[in-house]
Amino acid sequence: MYKILIVDDEQKIREVIKEYAEFNGYEVEEAENGMAAIGLCKLNDYDLIIMDIMMPKLDGFSACKEIRKLKDIPVIMLSARGEEYDKLFGFELGIDDYVVKPFSPKELMARINAVLNRKNIAAADQTGLMKFGGLEINISARSVTVDGTKVDLTPKEYELLFYLVHNKNIALSRDKLLSDVWGYDFFGDDRTIDTHIKNLRNNLGNYRDHIVTLRGVGYKFEA
User: Fold this and answer.
1) Tell me: the pLDDT tens digits for 71-86?
2) Which residues contact 12 (CB under 8 A, 6 or more apart)?
3) Which domain of life is it from (predicted)?
């Protein structure tokens, strides 16, 4: 389970983000200013930080600088200001995304998922290969082999399999799969997921049972 730190001096904003994040299966901690965020990062590890810019005691940019001295954690900045200068300054600091208030919580979740997916891809690319018995997934080559035989997947089937594998042993709802793999603005339905899962299972042959159906919820890749 991914662990997220939400840093914002407005409690209502923290509560909204926390509600959506926990619904999407994330573990959440909160901080009301940059100083508190730095203190938490000294004590804990996080997979991603959502950081407001304008905060008392220490602003988001300064907090981001200090946290980056401690740990390499992806950061999504929040701001009521959408000036190009702020965005460019943030990206120069190495932030991963920038969201202007007011924002759609659903879109923010999609951006969180995209940042975490990029982080997973970067980590997987260091080894390039994931193995589950005779099932091998080569990240850099975007290829899948079953007992030594290469199987042909569509680009979307590959993305879905890759996402399931990187979230192995985690229950994933159909809505989350649609949002993260197809995009938050995709206007499909549950049948899209079910059809692709069926095709994936057929392609995986003896390893089809790695993809488990969770009745009333969705799917998970069981490793």
Assistant:
1) 989 999 998 877 777 7
2) none
3) Bacteria
